[in-house]
Design brief:
This protein is mainly α. The protein is 77% helix and 0% strand. It contains 12 helices and no strands. The two termini are 38 Å apart.
Length: 268
């Protein structure tokens, strides 16, 4: 009886997990499907299959400029946070006083806990007060770095927390100095955490909306803002084509990570 009940609950749990996955994946598949629609509007059922909206996307220079701007912001955010996030994680895990470890973790994770719109408003007022309000290219980049910082910090901190320090002690006992030990032993061990954090930082920065809306330069949109402006006056599948290309780029990024460090080695 107990075995039959366990089997029943196993089936129920499997069904529940399957439904959750369908719920999460269905909107993505729907957007990709609509990008190939032959109709004039985003609507179901589709009116045939066509690549016309991808052609319209690739002929739209504004989307090119917005995508390039988003890519540069995301790349700089990922690279900068890869450095400062790793250094911050090393300090908090290795060198911070024991009583300060948890408060520092909460502080470093604060951008995840505060609603993004509140962070954007606070940054807007702050940059005007310190005189950066007329240099929005700097302001928006700082905003992107701030919001995506916790993703690198938390992943690297997790990798360091699970790292066996006896490997470092062995390297030091064999004559390696601190920098050589970090470069040859510590960094390769925490590399999956660093790459995961940078990947998260890049993807999140690429899609940030509120920070970009309030801190953007005049006439210089990121891709999410350009898509938002486009949908205000047009409701054709070009928007779905933009989303499909973005999903494809994310998928390619995941494949690159899998080919370099392997998805199983990533610490989420």
């Amino acid at each position: 009886m107990t075995g039959a009940r366990k089997t029943l609950w196993d089936h129920v749990f499997t069904l529940l997990v399957t439904l959750i996955y369908i719920f999460l994946i269905a909107p993505i598949l729907l957007v990709v499907l609509l990008s190939f629609s032959g109709g004039e509007f985003l609507a179901l059922p589709m009116e045939g299959v066509s690549l016309r909206w991808f052609e319209a996307l690739f002929n739209n220079s504004r989307f090119y400029e917005a995508a390039a701007h988003s890519f540069s912001l995301a790349l700089v955010s990922a690279l900068v946070n890869g450095v400062i996030g790793t250094l911050a994680a090393i300090y908090v895990i290795r060198f911070a006083p024991a009583q300060m470890t948890n408060p520092l973790r909460v502080l470093m994770s604060a951008p995840l806990m505060v609603p993004e719109i509140l962070t954007a408003i606070a940054l807007l007022f702050f940059f005007f007060e310190v005189g950066v309000g007329n240099r929005w290219s700097v302001a928006i980049q700082i905003g992107h770095i701030l919001v995506t910082f916790p993703y690198v910090f938390l992943n690297v901190a997790s990798a360091l927390f699970n790292f066996d320090r006896s490997q470092e002690e062995a390297a030091r006992s064999l004559g390696a100095n601190g920098w050589l030990t970090f470069r040859r032993v510590t960094l390769p061990a925490i590399k999956p955490g660093v790459i995961t954090g940078c990947l998260f930082a890049f993807v999140i920065s690429f899609d940030i909306f509120n920070i970009s809306l309030l801190l953007k330069s005049v006439g210089k949109n990121t891709l999410p803002l350009e898509l938002f402006d486009y949908l205000r006056y047009n409701f054709d599948p070009t928007a779905a084509a933009v989303a499909t290309v973005s999903i494809g780029l994310t998928f390619v990024a995941v494949l690159i990570v899998d080919a370099t460090v392997g998805l199983r080695s990533l610490r989420f």
